[in-house]
Amino acid sequence: MAINRKRANIAYGLDSPLQSLSPEPIIAQRAPGATDFAQLGVIWLDQSGNEVYVLLEIVANVATWLQVS
Prior knowledge:
This protein is mainly beta and 69 residues long. It is 0% helix and 42% strand. The protein starts with 9 loop residues before the first strand and ends with a strand.
């Protein structure tokens, strides 16, 4: 099942009315695939394989994930 999460995290602050927050990590029991979309830079945690991935780009509806070791 593909994940499609492209929502920006925004908070209200004192200095500026709207502040961007870091995207929340995706915690799953599998590695991400080419159809798993989120904000660029989001972290994917594969608990079953003890691996970490970062979303680099989405081009032509194909997501490119980088495995961090």
